[in-house]
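Figure 6 in text form: structure in, sequence out.
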């Protein structure tokens, strides 16, 4: 039987893949984690061929039952090493930005997935963040707040990729 952590990771990746596919965006996920879990790339049409475009957006994916849902924010205690990796990457001016995607799972694993004849639902929202600031000196975690309006969706993915393509990514 798979561990709870593995199930959380795989369901969250399926959520993110489904959003990318619905958006018509290419997604690569990495089997080995070297600070990023995957990359989004827009797909364009050149003549009669579809090809990935030259821009990319990397992501670090987390899933947790330990998210606090406030009226305006999703609150999560992110590991310091992950937080610092994201901050370092942003502050270094890298060409390919890296966002955090957080899948806020229901606390009861029996509610992670619901199935009927009409639907398959991966329950719990997925939110995106592009952390900024300085590196943390905390020992274990950094409490982050992600505005609930930053729900990861096909529209938000298109918006981020467009911002990158026109050079206006924050």
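Output sequence:
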């Amino acid at each position: 039987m798979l561990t709870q952590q593995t199930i959380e990771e795989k369901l969250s990746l399926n959520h993110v893949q489904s959003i990318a596919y619905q958006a018509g965006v290419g997604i690569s996920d990495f089997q080995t984690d070297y600070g990023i879990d995957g990359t989004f790339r827009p797909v364009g049409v050149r003549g009669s061929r579809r090809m990935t475009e030259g821009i990319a957006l990397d992501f670090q994916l987390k899933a947790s039952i330990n998210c606090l849902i406030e009226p305006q924010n999703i609150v999560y205690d992110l590991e310091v090493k992950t937080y610092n990796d994201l901050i370092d990457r942003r502050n270094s001016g890298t060409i390919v930005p890296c966002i955090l995607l957080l899948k806020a799972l229901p606390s009861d694993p029996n509610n992670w997935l619901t199935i009927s004849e009409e639907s398959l639902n991966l329950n719990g929202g997925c939110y995106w963040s592009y952390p900024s600031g300085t590196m943390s000196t905390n020992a274990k975690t950094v409490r982050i707040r992600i505005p609930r309006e930053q729900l990861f969706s096909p529209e938000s993915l298109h918006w981020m990729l467009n911002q990158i393509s026109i050079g206006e990514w924050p």
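Caption detail: The CA atoms of residues 78 and 141 lie 5 Å apart.
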